[in-house]
């Protein structure tokens, strides 16, 4: 149980850490990609605003003029001032590789400018321009180039910027961040594994004290119970048995049974319970353990059916498996509806790797909520499972806890479900 708790702690911590790291790395790379694309779009806007070229950089006033047209003696109109935060500086126009495609209002390409790029010819630039015009998009990525369109007095202008360097930088940043994140994740997971024992130490100590208390209490209570039992027998010898002595003896029997089950549960929940593992005929074991309950079921007006596949073999503790069958069958007989049916099945699972023990009983009013609570100690949903004309169900509420401990000690699983009016307990024995 302690190892299961430690594994669960490590798994939960590792999953939480993985989610946090994934969110952080995704956020950082998302911001990086967004900012890189925004910077490229800002530069594209500057080129579009200045009719396909970068303006001259003025470090003082950030005032930039278009190249003068020699055919016109009038002063050229003043261009828009680039925002200082766009990353535009005196080296930008020499570092940026781009080409420009011009088109008229009818979408026909009239001019291309490939003087600022070496990897694209004029014919290739025309093909890029036609592709963008046909798509109808105003911005995006085409191959190694990020593009943006704008409107002019003569038609459209499409600027393509070489973003190979930016793409390589984004990819490197992504790989580096993932590598660092993975290394950090592995390191933290190792630390979690190393210090997990210390983290769950209070729980371990509490569990050990609980087991010790059950063991000590069991031994201490046995003595006064034995004395009470002996005194009761003396009273019955001196005077005839009466309802009071009979009641005392019944309660002594009940307490002895409770102590036996508590000690059995504490033993089964140890890290390495003393089980004798060997191959045995589980078909015979299940049939022998379930058969004695046939008479008990009949006395309660119920029908017990045993459907066991012949010749099945299993490697485990035969005594523990017999106890598991007895617990589940007794539980089914106890809580089956009046005039109901109990079915004990043993068969090989569909995948052929497990031997399934299935014990079911009719249940018109099944328990509500989380059925896994039925395996908790001292849990009994009598309000929904005890409907038989005031019949007292007895029991201690720890039988299913012992059944779960037996199954887990065999590294297997047990579950409960309600289906077609039947309460079904299934132990998947691996």
Can you walk me through this structure?
By secondary structure, the chain is of the alpha+beta class. 50% of the residues lie in helices and 18% in strands. It has helices at residues 2-49, 92-95, 122-135, 164-199, 201-238, 243-268, 282-290, 293-299, 318-335, 382-385, 399-409, and strands at 98-103, 109-113, 139-142, 145-152, 155-162, 278-281, 303-308, 313-316, 341-348, 355-362, 413-419, 422-429. The protein has a five-stranded antiparallel sheet, with helices on both faces. It has a five-stranded mixed sheet with strand order 7-9-10-12-11. Strands 6-8 form a two-stranded antiparallel sheet. A hairpin with a 5-residue loop joins strand 1 (98-103) and strand 2 (109-113). Helix 1 (2-49) runs antiparallel to helix 4 and helix 7 packs parallel to helix 9. The longest helix is centred in the N-terminal third of the chain and has 48 residues, at 2-49. The model is unreliable at 62-85 and 383-392 (pLDDT under 50).
Radius of gyration: 40 Å
- Describe the main β-sheet briefly: 5 strands, antiparallel
Secondary structure: helix percent: 40-55%
Number of strands: 12
How would you summarize the topology of this molecule?
Elements: H1 2-49, H2 92-95, E1 98-103, E2 109-113, H3 122-135, E3 139-142, E4 145-152, E5 155-162, H4 164-199, H5 201-238, H6 243-268, E6 278-281, H7 282-290, H8 293-299, E7 303-308, E8 313-316, H9 318-335, E9 341-348, E10 355-362, H10 382-385, H11 399-409, E11 413-419, E12 422-429
Helix pairs in contact: 1-4, 5-6, 6-11, 7-9, 9-11
């Amino acid at each position: 149980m302690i190892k299961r708790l430690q594994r669960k702690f490590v798994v939960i911590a590792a999953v939480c850490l993985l989610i946090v790291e994934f969110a952080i790395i995704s956020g950082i790379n998302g911001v990086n990609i967004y900012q890189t694309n925004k910077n490229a779009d800002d530069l594209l806007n500057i080129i579009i605003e200045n009719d396909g070229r970068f303006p001259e950089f003025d470090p003082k006033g950030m005032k930039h003029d278009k190249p003068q047209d020699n055919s016109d003696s009038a002063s050229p109109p003043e261009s828009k001032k680039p925002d200082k935060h766009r990353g535009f500086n005196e080296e930008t126009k020499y570092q940026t590789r781009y080409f420009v495609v011009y088109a008229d209002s009818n979408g026909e390409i009239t001019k291309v400018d490939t003087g600022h790029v070496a990897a694209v010819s004029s014919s290739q630039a025309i093909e890029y321009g036609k592709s963008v015009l046909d798509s109808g998009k105003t911005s995006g990525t085409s191959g190694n180039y990020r593009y943006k369109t704008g409107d002019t007095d003569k038609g459209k202008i499409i600027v393509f910027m070489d973003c190979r360097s930016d793409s390589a930088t984004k990819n490197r940043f992504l790989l580096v961040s993932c590598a660092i994140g993975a290394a950090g994740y592995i390191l933290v997971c190792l630390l979690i594994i190393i210090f997990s024992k210390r983290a769950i130490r209070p729980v371990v100590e509490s569990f050990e004290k609980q087991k010790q208390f059950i063991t000590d209490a069991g031994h201490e209570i046995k003595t006064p119970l034995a004395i009470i039992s002996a005194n009761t027998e003396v009273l019955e010898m001196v005077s005839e048995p009466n309802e009071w002595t009979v009641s005392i003896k019944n309660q002594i029997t009940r307490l002895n049974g409770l102590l036996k089950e508590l000690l059995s549960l504490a033993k089964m929940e140890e890290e390495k319970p003393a089980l004798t593992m060997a191959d045995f005929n589980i078909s015979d074991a299940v049939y022998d353990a379930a058969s004695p309950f046939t008479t008990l079921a009949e006395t309660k007006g119920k029908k017990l059916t045993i459907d066991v596949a012949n010749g099945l073999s299993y490697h485990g503790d035969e005594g523990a498996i017999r106890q598991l069958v007895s617990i589940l069958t007794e539980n089914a007989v106890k809580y089956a509806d009046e005039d109901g049916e109990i079915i004990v099945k043993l068969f090989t699972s569909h995948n052929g790797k497990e031997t399934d023990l299935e014990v079911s009983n009719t249940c018109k009013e099944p328990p509500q909520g989380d059925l896994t609570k039925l395996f908790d100690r001292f849990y009994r949903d009598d309000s929904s499972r005890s409907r038989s004309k005031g019949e007292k169900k007895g029991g201690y509420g720890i039988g299913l806890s012992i059944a779960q401990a037996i199954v887990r000690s065999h590294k297997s699983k047990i579950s409960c479900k309600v289906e077609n009016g039947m309460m079904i307990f299934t132990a998947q024995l691996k």
